[in-house]
Amino acid sequence: MARAQTPTDRGSVLADLADAIMHAARLIRSWDQAAETVVPLSTVEAAVLEYVDRHPGCRPSDVARDLRMRSSNFSAALRVLDEQGFVERRSDPTDGRTANLVVTALAKRNIDVIRTRRAALLATALGDEPTRVEDARELLDRLRSTPATVD
């Protein structure tokens, strides 16, 4: 029978889990940057690019809100992605005051290389057991949808 965890033990275990997630994110990031064919991006730029790739036609304000970014940080990242030819702004047919964002073919090639490398890295770490992948995916999806402020 498993021993019941005290709140302090549980807090410590959860803090260790958060540390492990952060370490894994840094590992994946360094793995991404090691690809010779990939244009290096900052963490913020990569997050914006990945969001736009998953949500083609999104509005800039939606990206900043959903990624929980300050508008100044988001604007700087979007400017870099635009200058590098990774993102296009298209007129919003329903609101002429704003634009919709889409990734370019160049960005798509960059993203495909990164996603292939990430899949290989995670396949090595998680092995052939499908439940490991499903459990990890469920945890990360829940984290992604957790409100920004948690007490």
TrEMBL record:
State one molecular function term (GO).
DNA-binding transcription factor activity
Extract the PROSITE patterns matched here.
Answer: HTH_MARR_2
Q: Where is the HTH marR-type domain positioned along the sequence?
A: 14-145
Q: Which Pfam families match?
A: MarR_2 (PF12802)
Q: Which InterPro entries match?
A: HTH-type_Bedaq_tolerance, HTH_MarR-typ, WH-like_DNA-bd_sf, WH_DNA-bd_sf
Please identify the protein, giving its name as recorded. Winged helix-turn-helix transcriptional regulator
Q: Which Gene3D superfamilies match?
A: Winged helix-like DNA-binding domain superfamily/Winged helix DNA-binding domain
The coiled-coil regions, if any, are none
Q: Which organism is it from?
A: Mycobacterium yunnanensis
Q: Which domain of life is it from?
A: Bacteria
